[in-house]
């Protein structure tokens, strides 16, 4: 049994237990016993001609699970959805990763997958914004774009013979700076239409990487970025190099106000608490957790303590009960 | 020395065919991909699994399957007399190899090409049967890491002292120098993946002792499955829709 790694006192333990029991009772009504573990036989309900998907194995005519997870049935397809596991990429996923290596014409990124992902120099828009062939000069300047340990947001392009390829062909992708990177288990991030979020009242940006990397940072105004981009274009035409223009960008905004930093930390801690409890991450849940901490006047550092953890669990149980009633 | 009293009790009060109390806990190391703590009586083992991840040494990369590595260490404080052992002595190298081969057999390595899986097992308290406890802990940790496996491997030891087959030897019985059979077993496939024996036994008695160890493996498997199922259910209901 996975236990929380914080110490609770007697009342807190009982409250947490009650909240978790409530959560269990809600979910057990929804789907009855679809959880399987390694080497469990999956009942076929006398269907023949089933398709065996991920996480299953054929053993003397029986379908057997090879991972711990939840059985999903879609028409004739039977597969096991893994819970705690490494990220499994799908084409088009938005991910956040960290550069581990600058190699010839490519960057290698750690994205919590079983291999490092590859971002080719040719599959991203250069900072000058002009569509053109990449030259040897660009290749030499690769470190001025991304260096080792930079955090990058990109999209999964697909599998090639040498591994997983990424692309970053839009303004919204690229290096992310001045914020926090959090790693949660990928099953807690749901694939949605929107993975970039701007929280206006806190002045921060949130990027939910499908790989479980969540990035929180100061709001970067895209229009402002465009303007810089334009300036870059102009100066480019005058014949200056990347380095100079990047220097300008850095100089332009180096200061993050204290309030924004606190908001970043508060949101980050909200995500940490939710991740510890194993609750799914959506903007709504995170925002509710942040406003809960604000309404109770809980300091940023106290959010990781036992009391707030119990409060979050109770709040989540309440939220799911009410949404169930409405539904 | 008398290991089974006339009343049929062993030194620690167990019956010959009785196992020590077992306890397992999933998720002991927060930064690992999967981890587990496994106790068999006073033997206590911690296992952590990292991966599948990028291969650290490029020359070891295999294009059709994953590389499995295992490291077994005994904590200095794990035995009665505190000893500073050099890392990589013969005993721990041998046990690392045994655990690696046993786990590699049941992991579906072909599903994770060009990657590596690291298993670290650390003995916190040693009271006989560390090999078995390590294999059981590693199974739990691998399942927790979401690594696809053919079946769960469980392990248990059995011995033969005072002309009685004994299940799950503790340190005192183990160091008596009698035969000690360690079995690794796949309960679903009904197959043996590991069989080790110190000293000698006649064939007919050996079969009995091995059968006893297999029964022990099945009992461990039942318990491990319970723990896994409970953990999986909890993850699912906490996650919600």
From TrEMBL, chain A:
Belongs to the RRP4 family. Transmembrane segments: none annotated. Residues 90-169 form the S1 motif domain. This is Exosome complex component RRP4 homolog isoform X1. It is found in: Nucleus. It comes from Cucurbita maxima (Pumpkin). GO terms for cellular component: cytoplasmic exosome (RNase complex); nuclear exosome (RNase complex). Keywords: Exosome, Nucleus, RNA-binding, rRNA processing. GO terms for biological process: CUT catabolic process; exonucleolytic trimming to generate mature 3'-end of 5.8S rRNA from tricistronic rRNA transcript (SSU-rRNA, 5.8S rRNA, LSU-rRNA); nuclear polyadenylation-dependent rRNA catabolic process; poly(A)-dependent snoRNA 3'-end processing; TRAMP-dependent tRNA surveillance pathway; U4 snRNA 3'-end processing. The keyword Nucleus applies. One of its GO terms (molecular function) is RNA binding. InterPro entries: Exosome_RNA_bind1/RRP40/RRP4, KH_dom_type_1, KH_dom_type_1_sf, NA-bd_OB-fold, S1_domain, S1_RRP4. The keyword Oxidoreductase does not apply.
Automatic annotation (TrEMBL), chain B:
The keyword GTP-binding does not apply. It is found in: Cytoplasm; Nucleus, Nucleolus. One of its GO terms (cellular component) is cytoplasmic exosome (RNase complex). The keyword Cytoplasm applies. GO terms for biological process: nuclear mRNA surveillance; poly(A)-dependent snoRNA 3'-end processing; rRNA catabolic process; U4 snRNA 3'-end processing. Its main location: cytoplasm. Residues 18-148, 151-216 form the Exoribonuclease phosphorolytic domain. GO terms for molecular function: RNA binding. Transmembrane segments: none annotated. Gene3D superfamilies: GHMP Kinase, N-terminal domain (3.30.230.70). InterPro entries: ExoRNase_PH_dom1 (IPR001247), ExoRNase_PH_dom2 (IPR015847), ExoRNase_PH_dom2_sf (IPR036345), PNPase/RNase_PH_dom_sf (IPR027408), Ribosomal_Su5_D2-typ_SF (IPR020568), RNase_PH (IPR050080). Keywords: Cytoplasm, Exosome. Belongs to the RNase PH family. This is Exosome complex component RRP41-like protein. It comes from Cucurbita argyrosperma subsp. sororia. The lineage of its organism: Eukaryota, Viridiplantae, Streptophyta, Embryophyta, Tracheophyta. The gene is RRP41.
């Amino acid at each position: 049994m996975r236990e929380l790694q914080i110490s609770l006192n007697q009342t807190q333990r009982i409250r947490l237990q009650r909240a978790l029991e409530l959560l269990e009772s809600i979910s057990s009504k929804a789907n009855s016993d679809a959880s399987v573990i390694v080497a469990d036989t999956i009942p076929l309900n006398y269907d023949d001609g089933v398709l065996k998907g991920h996480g299953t194995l054929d053993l003397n005519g029986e379908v057997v699970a090879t991972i711990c997870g939840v059985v999903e049935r879609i028409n004739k397809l039977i597969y096991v959805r893994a819970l705690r596991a490494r990220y499994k990429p799908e084409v088009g996923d938005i991910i956040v990763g960290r550069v581990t290596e600058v190699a010839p014409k490519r960057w290698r990124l750690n994205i919590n997958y079983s291999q490092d992902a590859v971002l080719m120099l040719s599959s991203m828009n250069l900072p000058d914004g002009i569509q053109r062939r990449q030259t040897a000069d660009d290749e030499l300047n690769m470190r001025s774009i991304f260096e080792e340990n930079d955090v990058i947001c990109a999209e999964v392009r697909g599998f090639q013979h040498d591994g997983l390829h990424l692309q970053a062909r839009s303004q919204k992708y690229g290096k992310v700076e001045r914020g926090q990177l959090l790693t949660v288990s990928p099953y807690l991030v749901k694939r949605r239409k929107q993975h970039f979020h701007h929280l206006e009242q806190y002045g921060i940006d949130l990027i939910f990487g499908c790989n479980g990397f969540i990035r929180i940072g100061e709001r970067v105004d895209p229009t402002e970025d465009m303007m810089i981009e334009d300036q870059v274009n102009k100066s480019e035409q005058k014949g200056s190099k990347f380095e100079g223009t990047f220097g300008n960008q850095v100089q332009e905004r180096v200061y993050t106000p204290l309030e924004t930093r606190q908001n970043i930390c508060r949101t980050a801690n909200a995500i940490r608490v939710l991740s510890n409890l194993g609750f799914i991450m959506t903007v709504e849940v995170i925002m509710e957790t942040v406003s809960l901490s604000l309404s109770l006047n809980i300091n940023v550092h106290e959010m990781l303590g036992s009391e707030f953890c119990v409060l979050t669990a109770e709040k989540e149980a309440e939220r799911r009960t009410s949404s169930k009633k409405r539904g | 020395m008398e290991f089974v009293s006339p009343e049929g009790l062993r030194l620690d009060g167990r019956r010959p065919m009785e196992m020590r109390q077992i306890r397992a806990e999933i998720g002991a190391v927060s930064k690992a991909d999967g981890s587990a703590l496994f106790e068999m009586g006073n033997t206590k083992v911690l296992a952590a699994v990292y991966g599948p991840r990028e291969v650290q040494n490029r020359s070891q990369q295999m294009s059709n399957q994953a590389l499995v590595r295992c490291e077994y260490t005994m904590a200095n404080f794990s035995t009665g007399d505190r000893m500073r052992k050099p890392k990589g002595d013969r005993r721990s190298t041998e046990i690392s190899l045994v655990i690696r081969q046993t786990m590699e057999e049941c992991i579906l390595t072909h599903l994770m090409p060009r990657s590596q899986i690291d298993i670290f097992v650390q003995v916190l308290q040693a009271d006989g049967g560390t090999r078995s406890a390590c294999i059981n802990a590693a199974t739990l940790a691998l399942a927790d890491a979401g690594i696809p496996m053919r079946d769960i491997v469980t392990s248990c030891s059995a011995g033969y002292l005072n002309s009685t087959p004994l299940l799950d030897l503790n340190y005192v019985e183990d160091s008596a120098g009698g035969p000690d059979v360690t079995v690794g077993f796949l309960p679903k496939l009904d197959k043996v993946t590991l069989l080790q024996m110190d000293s000698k036994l006649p064939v007919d008695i050996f079969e009995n002792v091995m059968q006893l160890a297999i029964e022990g493996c099945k009992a461990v498997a039942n318990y491990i499955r319970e723990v896994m199922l409970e953990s999986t259910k909890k993850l699912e209901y906490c996650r919600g829709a």
